[in-house]
Amino acid sequence: MAYLNIIKKIVNMSPGPHRPWLALCLTGLFSCSVKAEANTDIRLHIMDRTQETAIPSTHRGNSQNSTLANDVWQRLTEHSVLPHQQHSDVEHEIKLYRENRYWTERKLRAAGPYLHFVLEQLKQHGLPAELALIPIIESRYDPRAKSHGNAAGLWQFVPVTARGLGLTIDRWRDERKSIERATTAALEYMAHLYSEFNNWSLAVAAYNAGPSRLRARIRKHGKASFQLWDLPVPQETRRYVAKFYALQHVVAHRDAYGISLPPVQPH
Questions:
Q1: CA pair distance 133, 118, nearest whole angstrom
Q2: Contact assessment for residue 134 and residue 122, using Cβ atoms and an 8 Å cutoff
Q3: Which of 133, 127, 143, 136 is nearest to 106 (CA)?
Q4: Which position among 52, 78, 120, 138 bears the catalytic label?
Q5: Residue 37 a catalytic site member
Q6: Residue 60's pLDDT band (boundaries 50, 70, 90)?
Q7: Cα separation of 78 and 186, whole Å?
Q8: Nearest by Cα to 134 from 187, 181, 56, 179
Q9: What residue ranges of the chain are covered by domains with CATH 1.10.530.10?
Q10: Residue pLDDT, tens place only, 188-226
Q11: Class in CATH terms, 62-252
């Protein structure tokens, strides 16, 4: 539609902080004739533009280099260290990602604005690059995401966990929505979970279910040697871990599965 293109052009030319308000006003003017699909398209466009302005300024740089070595997805694949999990739950999730390629591509592309920053932080913390996939499962890399259970931000912290990790939540600010502060807290938390469970599958499960619940399930299992899949963990947690390993596999084999991802250059 012609008016949709006009709105997009006006929003793109406006200063970053004013884009949401300007777009809201403009779309309001056309509200009588705009269909639901067009409104969705506009909102997605605005989200893409405003999220770009929220990238930590200290991590911006020259993004003109288009060599494959600088592609963030390629970097994630090359620096992956966790072995693939051969389990029926993981294979089931891989099948879903493969059969729903458009949906999978949308989920992965949403990580674009922040993926390089998260990978850099993982490198500095000495953690596996694959952990950059966690926010795809948690929030689709939306720092403004909020769940019905009051989890918020890129990493979907609930208030008690966030405050325990030193994040401020009060009437003036919510640091769960800060890309830098929340990512630092999440990676420190992940490192702590790994130091306790000494297994990345268990650490990822503890991130989802909570370490106390996982400890209780391990005690109930009562065996010295086990894998996550042997534990009576909640079905939601089993699927969460399965999604994590399935995403790792799909990203590594995206060409074979016909999944198209535009190169994401460092910002």
A1: 10
A2: no
A3: 136
A4: 138
A5: no
A6: very low
A7: 23
A8: 187
A9: 62-252
A10: 999 999 999 999 999 999 999 999 999 999 988 877 667
A11: mainly alpha
